[in-house]
Amino acid sequence: MDKKWRIGAVSYLNTRPLLLGMELSPFCDSINLVKSYPAQIAQDLLDDTIDIGLVPVAIMPLLSNPQIVSKYVIGTEGEVASVALFSQVPMDQIEKVYLDYQSRTSVALAKLLIKNFWEKEVEFLIATEGYINEISGTIAGVIIGDRALASLNRFEHVYDLGLAWKAYSGLPFVFAAWVANKPIPSEFIEAFDAANEYGLKHLDEVIALIPATEQVYDLHKYYTENISYELTPEKRKGLEKFLELIKNK
After folding, report:
1. Is residue 88 located within the same domain as residue 145?
2. Both 31 and 99 in a single domain?
């Protein structure tokens, strides 16, 4: 493992348990870790500026040789809390929806659920920075990550996309996975998984290292009830179903 592997990771609260072992253990000497928001990490993987990325799963069909290289993902068995459609009016009154620019998967999932689960016809709006302040009246918005957690008490109506997907499909959901676009040596993957696992086994340490100003939600609940990190067979089924449904969309 002389090579320094280029790793791209999302800089959200939900990744902190996965990154603790990478940042604080000797494993960090074998990698160059880059952090950004999901859509940028996806682009980095497409551009081959990283070797492995924690990317929105919707990017996988665009890769020439996509392969999930870890048994850990950002997933949910139901209520995810940090990916939702926010609105000041009920679903039946929503006319326009801002789509968060930070994640391809959440945008694709929102479009799918609005059409097939809520059976709504809406106008989709391209979001830019500051779009959250434009959510009002009949204009709703998809918000993901830490900004979604901070918005949970800000809007009258919160439609959790993890819960909606579970009601629609009966399956859990995978938002992001560690993906490579080329073969990765098995010995590195073994060490990589061990680094991911460290934080999951030391959640109190993870939470203690997060500044109080960033703890806008009960992080113990978030890490143990909302986010589900293991790539189980049921999550693989949910992922396959999602990718099939968005194919050619």
Report:
1. yes
2. no
d(CA 11, CA 207): 15
135, 169, 203: which is the final residue of a domain?
Answer: 169
177 to each of 93, 188, 235, 236, how far by Cα in Å?
34, 17, 11, 11
- Total number of domains constituting the chain: 2
Cβ atoms of 155 and 85 within 8 Å: the answer is: no
CA atoms within 13 A on the CB side of 63: 25
By the 8 A CB rule, do 72 and 231 touch?
Answer: yes
Residues 72 and 177 in one domain: yes
CA angle 186, 189, 191 (to 5 degrees): 115
- Cβ-Cβ contacts under 8 Å for 209 (sequence gap 6 or more): 16, 20
The backbone torsions φ and ψ at residue 238, rounded to the nearest 5 degrees and listed phi first, read -60, -40
Domain that holds residue 58: 5-77+172-246
- Same domain? 180 vs 224: yes
| pLDDT by 10s per residue, the chain, length 249 | 467 899 999 888 999 999 999 988 788 888 999 998 888 898 999 999 999 999 989 999 999 999 999 999 999 999 999 999 999 999 999 999 999 887 789 999 999 999 999 999 999 998 988 999 999 999 999 999 999 999 999 999 999 999 999 999 999 999 999 999 999 999 999 999 999 999 999 999 999 999 999 999 999 999 999 999 999 999 999 999 999 999 866
Are both 49 and 70 inside the same structural domain? yes
Q: What is the CATH number of the domain that holds 104?
A: 3.40.190.10
Predicted TM-score (pTM) above 0.90: yes
